[in-house]
Every structure is written in C-alpha cells, then in structure tokens.
Amino acid sequence: MTLLRRDKFLFACLSAFLVVGFLLSWFLLIPPSRTPSDKVVTIKRGMPFRSIAMMLEQEGIIRNKELFIATATLFGKTGGIKAGEYEFHHRMSLLKVLGLLVKGQVKQHLVTIPEGYTLPQIGQLLESLNIVGKTAFLQAASSPPFIHSLGLLPLLSDQDRNFSRFKSGLTLEGYLFPDTYHFIKEMEPEEVIRVMVHRFLKVFGPDLAERASQLGMTPMEAVILASIVEKETPLPEEKPLISAVFHNRLKRRMPLQSDPTVIYGIRNFDGNLTREHLQTPTPFNTYLFMGFPPSPICNPGKDSLRAALHPASVTYLYFVSKNDGAHHFSETYEEHRNAVWKYQKKLIPKNHLTTK
Fold first, then answer.
1. Using an 8 Å Cβ cutoff, are 355 and 241 in contact?
2. Is beta strand 318-321 parallel, antiparallel or unpaired with respect to 84-89?
3. Quick one: residue 92, left, alpha or beta (phi over 0 = left, psi -120 to 50 = alpha)?
4. Whose CB has fewer CB within 10 Å in the chain, the N or C terminal residue?
5. DSSP string for 193-229
6. In this structure, are residues 269 and 192 in contact, taking their beta carbons and an 8 Å threshold?
7. pLDDT digits (tens, 9 = 90+) for 54-103
8. β-pairing, 180-183 with 109-112?
C-alpha cells in the first residue's frame, strides 16, 4: 500500500470513527429536545423492557428505542425496572433516562390519611390516588400471617382480655397511623401497610404501653378507647374529657353507650342512627354490652392515643353535642337531661342513660 493510499485509508477510518462517535454522543448524551416541558410516564408492574423503550420513544423522551435497548443490554440493565410513575423532561439524555429507571427514582406523592379513618376509608382513598387497590389493601390488612409479621403481637397477645373475640376477625383496624406519607403509585399493599404500622409503633411506644399497664388496661384496650375518643370529638382540648367520661363509666360498671361503636357494627349505615340500631345486638353495641367493643372502630391519631391513657381529672359521666363541634359535659343524669333538652331540643326516656 502506497503512502498516499494509506493516508487516505487512515483518514477514512478517522472520519468514520468521528461520525460514529458524534452519532453515539448525539443519541446518548444530547437530549431529544431543548424544551423544558416535563412528562410523567407510568411503568406498569411486569412491563417488558422493550415495551418501556417503545413508550419512551413514543412520548419523545428518547430518540431511538433500539439504541436505548442496546445501551441497556450493554450495561446489563434491562431487568428489575421498578414499577411506578417516572417524571422525565426533554432535556434528559438517553443515559440520564436509563439511570433514572435503573435507580428506581419514581415520583412520590404526599398522601394524608385523616385521623379517624376506618380501613375501608383508607383503602378507598389510596385507590382513588392510584396508590393501591382497595380490595388488595383490605385483604392484606386482614391477613393473619401478614399481621403477625408486623411486630404487633405484644399488642395482640393471648393475655389480652379481648383477644379471644378479636382474633377470629383479625384486622389492622386501629393500627394504621393517620399521618402524611410519601407514597408512590402502583405500590404493593403490604408495603403501604408496613409504613403505616411502623409509624404507629413509633407513636405507641413503651411509654404508652407502660401507662396502659398502670391503668390496668391492655395495649389493645388503650387503642380501642383511643379510637372511640377519636370518633367522638375532633377537638384536641376535649379528648381528655371524653376519655375521662369513659374511664369513669368503666369504674362504675356503666356501659360506655357510645354511638360511634354502634355505627361501626352496622352494615351499610345510611347516616341515620335510630332507636332500632341502639337495640340491635352486635359485638360493637356498647349500649347493650358492658366494657370495650372487640376491636378498634377507626385509626386514632396521636392526641386520641394519649388522651385515652391520660384522661382529665374530672368526674363527668355524660356528654352531649352542642351542635357546634363541641360538647357539654355533666356529672349527673339530671344535668345531662337538661343539657340534652337545651342542645338537642328533645327529652330522652328516664330509663335510657346515654352519653350523647
């Protein structure tokens, strides 16, 4: 090969190398667009990598799906992509897009679980936000093997006076702490539940468990009472007073007579509590049965948990709604009857003791 032909060959190789290098750089490092618009893409659980690449190309996030697949294959990153929402912008290079997927940097959503929500209400809320399906959530929240794996056995031990009734319908009602969480879409229900139970166990720590023991209550009874307090009033300043009423009633062996417990035991409650409901024997009817219902009736917040174990030092036995969110508290039945007449504009039968 002459020197001239060799130089031409080397020049051609160099030119080809530069062209290939430019094209690779263009595909791998240069974003498909310089516009700053963001795009959210949802990757379904079990979605093949080729389908992911095709979707990214269709959305304009990458230029070429085949090169994307080849690059991911080269680095051994075509498997294990985490399901969920990913937020991309058109200034991201192919390598940055791949890196985001490999790291599983899914978009997080702030989800607030209100205090006093029941399991079905929490499940419905999570489903409406596409975090997890309600049915799957409720199934996980009532699975005994899963529940036993969560570290709740000290709260649900055989020594619990209500456990024999409770274990036949074991659920996590009462133990999913209402708070604001960072959740992602398409989560496993067990993952959501673990986060909420872990938060509950941080709030209901050894100090509250010890306080329950001092009051002669099991931890489960404390959670049950907290759930009733939660349902009876939204006002933090009233919670210790409501708690005191129930503590005083228990000491006097009076029924708790809490409307929210009755409502919890009614299937498909339509919002209108009737005398027939109060006379219907369900395990949650605290007008007919002494002591606590068999399980919590909602998921109480921190104020209610603390109030259940730190009742106010008062002798009240009754309370009635003042129709403004607050309650009137009474020590005697006669005073309570007068308060009912004042605030509810109706008399109650003399033989019908009620806290409402």
1. no
2. unpaired
3. beta
4. N
5. HHHHHHHHHHHS-HHHHHHHHHTT--HHHHHHHHHHH
6. no
7. 999 998 888 888 888 988 888 888 887 888 889 888 778 888 888 889 88
8. antiparallel
Amino acid residing at 13: C
Cα separation, 161 vs 295, in Å, equals: 11
Q: Are 319 and 258 spatial neighbours (Cβ–Cβ below 8 Å)?
A: no
DSSP 62-79: SS-HHHHHHHHHHTT-SS
Instruction: Answer whether 0.85 is exceeded by the pTM.
Output: no
Q: Which residues contact residue 88 at a Cβ distance below 8 angstroms, ignoring those fewer than 6 apart?
A: 38, 39, 40, 41, 56, 59, 61, 97, 100
> pLDDT tens, 198-222?
999 999 999 999 999 999 999 999 9
For 14-67, the DSSP string reads HHHHHHHHHHHHHHHTS-S-----EEEEEEPTT--HHHHHHHHHHTTSSS-HHH
Q: Which domains does the chain have, with CATH numbers?
A: 28-103 (3.30.1490.480), 119-316 (no CATH)
